[in-house]
Specification:
This protein has 409 residues and is mostly helical. Helix content is 74%, strand content 0%. It is globular and about 60 Å long.
């Protein structure tokens, strides 16, 4: 169990360190004397093939690529999609009744460590230049990873904390436990706002609407308390939106959709994403059946940018920022199908075991796949593979509590 907890903690603080934890868990899996029975059991499960399909497509796509160096890098990164369906069987068989709680605790602790270290670094920078912008966006997270990638982790931290807080209330756990969980949840909400990822901010708002609706429906919290919380959050959001960084990022989004010609020389992230979206769709039309190959996506995009006047995207080498489009562009229609099939498998398992946290993971990831190439970067593919594999292969229906709220077993 220690290996899984360390892996969850390293996800957010030192993603390269996850390789050590994965190798350790892999060795435990393969040196087991019952390895043959475990492999037989796992490969009898159709979901194993569904989960591994994107990895197998990356191997097959090497036959249709000219950039072998980039292609093999992509295959290496996608190894997580092959490994996690196997090693999660050991997690499922662990007898520790607190294994899920320890896993989530490791993940939450990792986020908190990064947050505290980031704030201290920003304070040092603020003392040097007296600019509040050092507490926002990439200034806050650049030392560990991009703000958009970090926000993807924090959003799931919000989900874990919110579900734990509701569980604490329903089970009448000690007031200290409730305050601690509420404090962590508030910290993650603030962290999401500071990271200023537009996609994650939208997900945060949707999650807040969902949880408040759930609280009202289940009558877990008095309506007056919910109203008071909403007022405080609204005032806080209004204040945050008046900061220079957030105001600028939101106004840039609005300007892209205004009825005027888009300035493709701008390096604003929304303009770059619009460029990559248009270019990806055009290339998909030309390569919809087999795609461009495992290693050629970036080369084909850069070529298209240069030939069609997308100046900044060409100079930046902008990637698709959309996993659905990237999979479609890389492997053709089968690539898109493999991603949709994987989400369908998760949905079926979430429904079978009645777990709210799995449903929210599916909803959050399916939306964030619209905004980033999750399976192209190690920070994304390890994170997605670990929790998705756990929700497909390691869930057990709690016989004593069949509510969809249960997050631990």
């Amino acid at each position: 169990m220690l290996g899984w907890t360390i892996l969850a903690m390293f996800l957010t603080s030192y993603v390269k360190g996850t390789s050590v934890a994965i190798v350790f868990l892999g060795l435990l899996y393969f040196v087991d004397k019952d390895i043959l029975s475990k492999l037989t059991y796992q490969f009898k499960n159709v979901y194993t093939y569904v989960f591994m399909l994107p990895f197998f497509l990356s191997l097959l796509g090497m036959l249709n690529t000219s950039n072998y160096k980039e292609g093999w890098h992509f295959v290496e990164v996608n190894l997580s999609l092959f490994i996690f369906p196997l090693i999660t069987l050991d997690f499922k068989r662990l007898e520790d009744s607190h294994k899920w709680k320890m896993l989530y605790s490791g993940f939450v602790l990792g986020i908190l460590i990064v947050f505290v270290m980031s704030i201290f670094q920003s304070i040092e920078q603020y003392q040097e230049n007296n600019s509040i912008s050092v507490f926002f966006y990439n200034h806050l997270s650049v030392w560990v990873m991009g703000a958009n990638h970090m926000a993807n982790y924090v959003i799931f931290g919000v989900i874990i904390s919110a579900i734990e807080l509701i569980r604490n209330k329903q089970e009448y756990l000690p007031i200290k436990s409730r305050f601690l969980t509420a404090g962590i949840l508030l910290t993650f909400v603030i962290y999401t706002v500071l990271l200023s990822s537009k996609a994650s901010l939208l997900v945060l708002v949707l999650l807040m609407i969902f949880f408040f609706a759930y609280l009202l429906k289940m009558r877990i919290v008095n309506r007056k308390i919910i109203f008071a919380i909403l007022v405080v959050l609204s005032i806080s959001f209004a204040f945050a939106l008046n900061t220079e960084v957030l105001k600028s990022r939101i106004s840039n989004v609005k300007s892209v959709f205004e009825p005027r010609e888009v300035d493709y020389t701008s390096r604003e992230s929304t303009v770059l994403r619009m460029s990559s979206l248009q270019a990806s769709l055009q290339l998909i039309k030309q390569n919809w059946l087999f795609g461009v190959g495992t290693g050629d996506v970036q080369d084909e995009l850069v070529k298209y940018y240069g030939e069609n006047g997308y100046v900044s995207a060409h100079e930046e080498g902008t990637y698709p920022h959309n996993q659905y489009l990237r999979s479609f562009l890389t492997f053709g229609v089968l690539g898109l199908f493999s991603i949709l099939l994987l989400f369908y498998a998760m949905y079926r398992q979430a429904g079978k075991h009645h777990k709210m946290i799995a449903y929210l993971w599916i909803g959050t990831m399916s939306f964030l796949f619209l905004t980033d190439d999750f399976l192209f970067f190690q920070t994304g593919v390890v994170y997605f593979s670990m929790f998705s594999a756990l929700f497909i292969f390691a869930l057990k229906k709690n016989k004593e509590d069949d509510t969809i709220l249960t997050a631990t077993h």
